[in-house]
Design a protein that fits this description.
Rossmann fold, 5-stranded parallel sheet, single chain, binds glyoxylic acid, 7-stranded parallel sheet, binds NADP nicotinamide-adenine-dinucleotide phosphate, alpha/beta, 2 domains
Length: 309
Amino acid sequence: MAMILISQGRDMTPWAEALKEKRPELDLRVYPDDSNKEEVAFALVWNHPLGVFKEFPNLKCISSMGAGVDHIMKDPELPANAAITRVTDENLTRDMADFCVALVMNHLRGLAFYKMQEAAHDWQPRHYLNISDVTIGVMGVGVLGAHVASQLSNLGFKVNGWARSKKMIEGVEIFSGDTMLGDFLATSDILICLLPLTKETTDILNRDTFQKLPKNAFVINVARGAHLVDADLIEMIDTGHLSGASLDVFRQEPLPEEHPFWSHPKINVTPHIASVTEPKAVVSLILENYDRVRNNEHLLNVVSPQKGY
Ligand code: NAP
Ligand code: GLV
């Protein structure tokens, strides 16, 4: 039985080294590879070439190298008999919360504005927001969103969360399902998107959604670029309904040179860096699932093909 690493554009060396360090005897291949494809039962992937899995007739598990699986689910030729799994990791979760706290505090204290004023040598103190003035709405309170919501609540923010199902998170009021979306949005002075990208959540950050936010609301998207309708965001900022946005993810990455987000004074751009999987931190989990495939056991972190996350 063998494992294969498949990615377009990501350096596989740290993954191969971390796996081999943990298990030197692992039959590990990196795509493209000419060895017997029938021996491959486990694929560890990030942005694979669509349709590639049909080359491996005995594939039992396709694991994402990250938390998101949209890059796998968009393949129209997924093998029916392979489970799809993903990575969860406490460092990844911590890093996402740290990043969101940094973006929220940056907004409250206007640091991006002062960076521009600094460049213009312009001394211009502005009114700032306090933690107690602000309600934060976290869209998607799964592994990452729940921790982000808890950390912000611990800092003293009023925090609401939105999910498909009801759940309990201390200090966080949960709104569930489409029927409660309007009420959730109506109180979100800062909206943080941490949804998985699925059919239901594509384009969810659109004009209609933004109009339901309070005036001067601020939008943070750290999930996927395709949640956001780019032109709607720009329109809602330019017409004064939204105060700005911090975006870490984009429909096309790297963000094209000519994209208007780059030069918009009220939009902060970061290069998909909120929370990055460290291979060394997750290879134990990946090897655990590899062993479970070999032993025909129940896998960890399995994604629902119906829900798409
Ligand atoms: P997760 O554990 O699967 O949580 C997803 C959450 O979204 C759940 O609370 C789920 O509700 C909710 N949800 C899904 N579809 C919904 C819908 N139609 N309506 C309302 N709520 C819905 O995912 P995660 O591990 O927290 O990761 C979230 C995403 O973050 C990933 O998919 C990835 O795209 C992104 N990400 C970005 C970075 C970065 O560096 N920028 C890093 C890692 C991950 P239920 O709880 O009711 O199921
Ligand atoms: C990063 O975007 C991830 O999905 O882990």
